[in-house]
Task: structure prediction
Amino acid sequence: METNPAKEAERILREFGVKGNPVPVEDIAAKLGAKLSYEPFEGQDEISGMLFRDGDHIVIGINSSHAKTRQRFSIAHEIGHLVMHKGAIFVDKAVRLNRDAKSSLAIDPREIDANRFAAELLMPEKLVSAEAKKRLVKKSKLSELLLIDELAAAFQVSSQAMEFRLTNLGIISPR
Ligand SMILES: [Zn+2]
Result:
């Protein structure tokens, strides 16, 4: 079965009538029947999130010691597993979105899909483009770094995640 993370994310956004940013990722998880469980995962700080599924019993575990933006990304990532993948348990170790981490990240195609889904869910192309356009028109001399930070705040994602997304969408050029 071929899954398309972009299409799946679009479907979810449409299904729950999400029209603005920041995307209410906790609400979406809850509406999908998942119980969110925030835990510090003491002594295992490398875990960013997990999904446990047993029939109707669905729990998304989130590392509460991580930054809020990162928690949102983790929730979106686990929603991706929930809607795209079969399997009772997913445990996700912390990965950074920088280029160095790419190779280790690229091992399991389901992880690539879940990250792609999370980016599409939290930073829908239409909304990101609209917000970027608004700012580029308003302040023509706005630097790309400032744009990244402003959009990261507007979508409640990390600056790294937003930079990655804007580069992928061709709104900024790779550094
Ligand atoms: Zn995962």
